[in-house]
């Protein structure tokens, strides 16, 4: 069936009153957590995961998508107004965005961010509609060896390429893999790392781990180590919340370049939107240096427009990679992959055949979410900024209550509450010692897939592990991984040399 016809059927499903309501709720929640300090779309999805099991799968994932996109729409607000980005993906936007706010252009900076996020997300949604079915057809060629190679690619990229410290990244990955293997082995029936406790025979729920690591651990970290709760540095946006024709003309090329940079990173497991936002900012800065009168450092609108477009285009493409390949490129996407499995669905080529109504309604909801988010953020950005005035003690106390209620509601077990607290303390320690959290989540989500694929490949070849590197797809994946690792090592060596030269010079 033609893609446009399938998309039309998806719009028919997404435009029902109930699903429109879930789009709106997801967008509102996503924008709110993006604006609030220390929160993010991964925490919001983790907190909502226990609550949404009573929902229809289509409604649940439409809401999750709204939260995912809305988080990026809102997370630059704090950086622009307070010079304190709520998430790593908003750091690049802060450089010029906050300078615009200091120059009395806070409202225009928020408008630039909202339009850039809309353009990046909308273009990515168009690409995903046509690319995802092709990716799904391609992934139908994958066997156990190919899925194992894909999991290894994701493990290596998220734990060593994105993180500043490879040892810490790999440690977080192995912690996630270690949690994933707890329970009864599905093949042999033998208990693994259960300490003879019946409570661990079914393993540790991914819902418990994600809520503990991303939400409760963050709450403990803020309560124990962060004391700066003042909002004295908050700049109140005033003036027109739209851009003039001259400003639009100035920002348009940066939006286009940022979108183009962000698209490829949506199908590469490289940690999400952090890398493309910095690449987009760096490109604009180099182009600005060639101007007769460089503007970077004084509140250049292009320095804000490009990272915002890059971040949302990466997020849009990440949803396509998740649906077509079952490949999560960030912690938020990994949680959504876990949610699919909780509903008995496996993203990939079979998802397009077994649940076409869900897939195409979800793809159609991307376009609706972009429009809703633009409406919510462009004229009402000043109202969203007032969320920054919420006292942090009240905010994080409420999050803690929701953590406990969500876990207890899904399991009804006090043991899971104790597990929530224990893993939350682990998350706090990792956060305090600057360990990345995304490798842990991705390791736990993709660990079972890697183990099952490795076993199936070995069994199908009578124990000949050379089958793992015999197909063209696996060879290409491992070659790409080697190139990515070599480039990562090279970039770090160059960066260290520059630091030494700066110190000695």
Automatic annotation (TrEMBL):
It comes from the Bacteria. Residues 20-442 form the DUF112 domain. Keywords: Membrane, Transmembrane, Transmembrane helix. It comes from Microbacterium imperiale. This is DUF112 domain-containing protein. Pfam families: TctA (PF01970). The chain crosses the membrane at residues 20-39, 46-69, 109-135, 147-163, 169-188, 200-223, 317-340, 360-382, 394-410, 417-447, 467-489. Coiled coil: none annotated. InterPro entries: DUF112_TM.
């Amino acid at each position: 069936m033609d893609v446009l016809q399938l998309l039309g059927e998806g719009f028919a499903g997404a435009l029902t009153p109930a699903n429109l309501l879930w789009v709106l709720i997801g967008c509102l929640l996503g924008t709110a957590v993006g604006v609030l300090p220390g929160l993010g779309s991964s925490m919001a999805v983790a907190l909502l995961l226990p609550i949404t099991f009573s929902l229809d799968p289509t409604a649940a994932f439409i809401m999750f998508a709204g939260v995912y996109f809305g988080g990026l729409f809102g997370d630059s607000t704090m950086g622009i107004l307070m010079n304190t980005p709520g998430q790593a993906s908003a750091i690049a936007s802060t450089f010029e965005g906050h300078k615009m706010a200091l120059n009395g252009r806070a409202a225009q900076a928020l408008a630039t961010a909202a339009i850039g996020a809309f353009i990046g997300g909308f273009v990515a949604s168009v690409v995903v509609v046509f690319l995802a079915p092709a990716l799904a057809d391609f992934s139908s060629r994958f066997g156990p060896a190919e899925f194992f190679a894909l999991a290894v690619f994701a493990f290596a990229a998220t734990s060593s390429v994105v993180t500043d410290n490879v040892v810490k990244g790999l440690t977080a990955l192995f912690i996630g893999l270690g949690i994933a293997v707890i329970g009864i082995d599905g093949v042999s029936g033998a208990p693994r790392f259960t300490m003879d406790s019946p409570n661990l025979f079914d393993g540790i729920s991914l819902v418990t781990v994600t809520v503990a690591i991303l939400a409760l651990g963050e709450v403990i970290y803020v309560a124990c180590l962060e004391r700066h709760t003042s909002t004295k540095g908050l700049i109140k946006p005033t003036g027109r919340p739209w851009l003039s024709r001259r400003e639009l003309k100035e920002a348009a090329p940066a939006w286009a370049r940022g979108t183009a940079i962000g698209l490829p990173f949506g199908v590469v497991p490289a940690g999400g939107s952090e890398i493309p936002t910095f690449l987009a900012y760096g490109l604009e800065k180099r182009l600005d240096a060639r101007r007769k009168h460089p503007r970077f450092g004084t509140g250049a609108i292009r320095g804000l427009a490009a990272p915002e477009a890059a971040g949302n285009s990466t997020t849009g493409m990440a949803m396509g990679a998740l649906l077509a390949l079952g490949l999560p490129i960030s912690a938020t996407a990994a949680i959504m992959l876990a949610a699919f499995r909780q509903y008995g669905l496996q993203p990939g080529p079979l998802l397009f055949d077994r649940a076409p109504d869900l897939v195409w309604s979800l793809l159609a909801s991307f376009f609706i979410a972009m429009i809703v988010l633009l409406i919510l953020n462009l004229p009402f950005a000043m109202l969203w900024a007032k969320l920054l005035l919420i006292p942090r003690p009240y905010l994080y106390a409420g999050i803690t209550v929701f953590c406990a209620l969500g876990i207890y509601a899904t399991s009804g077990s006090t043991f899971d509450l104790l597990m929530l607290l224990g893993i939350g303390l682990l998350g706090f320690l990792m956060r305090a010692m600057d360990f990345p959290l995304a490798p842990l989540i991705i390791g736990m989500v993709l660990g079972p897939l890697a183990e099952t694929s490795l076993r199936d490949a070995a069994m199908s070849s009578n124990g000949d592990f050379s089958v793992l590197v015999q197909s063209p797809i696996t060879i290409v994946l491992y070659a790409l991984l080697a190139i990515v690792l070599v480039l990562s090592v090279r970039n770090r060596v160059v960066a260290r040399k520059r630091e030494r030269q700066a110190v000695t010079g």
